[in-house]
Amino acid sequence: MKAAAAVAEVLRREGVKFLIGYPVNPIIEAAAEADIRTIIVRQERTGLHMADAVSRISSGERVGVFAMQHGPGAENAFGGVAQAYGDSVPIVVLPGGYPRRITNIQPNFNSFLNFQHVTKWCEQVIVPDAVVDAMRRAFTQVKNGRPRPVLIEFPVDLLREDVPEPIQYTPAPRLRSGPDPRDVSRVAEALVAAQRPVIYAGQGVHYARAWQALRELAELLEAPVTTSLQGKSAFPENHPLSLGSGGRSISQQLHHFLQNADLIFGIGCSFATTNYGVAMPKGKRIAHATLDPTDINKDVPAELALVGDAGLTLQALLVEVKDRLKGGPRGRVSVVTQEIKNLKSQWLEKWTPRLTAETKPLSPYRVLWDLMHTVDVANTIITHDAGSPRDQISPFWEPVSPLSYIGWGKTTQLGYGLGLAMGAKLAAPDKLCVNVWGDAAIGFTGMDFETAVRERIPILSVLLNNFSMAIELKVMKAATAKYRSTDISGDYAAMARAFGGHGERVTEPAEIVPAIRRAIRKTQEGTPALLEFITEKAEDFSMPS
To answer: Which strand (E) or helix (H) includes residue 37?
Structure first.
């Protein structure tokens, strides 16, 4: 058996159903011969984004895999791997490598050397009988510990050599570890003693599939819950205790409760400092529960800490908290939820004119508001793109089911959302999968809408086109005035039609909902759809005053 075929056999045994890639890499052909569906993209970064979403939407139970050519293919892939690393997403990356006799000779690009800072495990295979062991290490690493990319580089001449048979390979195990019981007792004691606790949930809750335990703890403590962008949809935002998610833009109720909290309990989160996440108020008492001990006290000082799987942590806390509360809540939920309701009503009242505006060009908030009230939210997976779409949608979209919102933002590469929606559709073909992006983002990855058409991945792509890099207007005043540096343009609905998809440009407020319904029908028929909404150059976001 050739080495490429051995790699494909390992993928098959690991349950990989499709390999996303860009030629030429012998592993792609070997995968097809092993009846693994091969999906070819127009550029490497989008393919990695698709693999990324496969892992996210399955809570890492199905690992996205991407293969690419040595040299320029590996070079082009760097951004997609870096994005997955920044957002803690488990993917397996299988680049080809230059032939071994020149692999370390300049200027040849060496993935093993260059990807080490954006992977949790990086290896180069140089002898055929190490192929299977390298794949075993890769899948063991990607399934366990902090979710992040792993990369195995296979020189192209190696992939043509023989691997000893029979292949001895058993799928790598998934292992979980829990926190120290003594630390659990201390955190439980603090949670019960707190008068105004706030729970801050990250994507570790998604990977642990610990949504029910999170809800039970919140209801037992009668504690309001917020999430990071990555953790959004871990707690139903139509729940009376929900504060919504925290990003660069946040709701009034979230800001108020964080500022007035006497204990903030972070579960399954990193508390990493980022411009695109909610900042923890200074001087607050913090209890931090996370899988990776390197996150403890890295960015936020934590008085109390727990290290372990979010699900095991929450289950242990539930036992301890129930014991201290004698099995039930204390009866203060109505006061807490009424305070949330009042603040939310005040906030929405202020934003209602923007969310329901009849103006032309369209208000982007009207588009997103109508979208949320037209789709079946519980059966929709939606993601944003970087910049304005992220800050406009994240405070107002209310997911009600787990893994129905792909939030991101530790690093903010434009064009990420398209691949995420496509990967989500591969992982959850029965869901409506939507990406919301702007006319800057489509300039980066828009050609891969053709991939959605060609590969029969019927997503709904919602484009907010204001013919401008609006979020940059305030910081590029001279460049815009002198050289129109923030002006961009295109007829993207026509582009979608040219690729064989459904494309429609919408300019009238009354046409927003009918257009969305037509596009949804097209996706149900198997055709990817792109709706291009002509919007104003909005610069207003829901920010704390």
So the answer is: strand 37-40
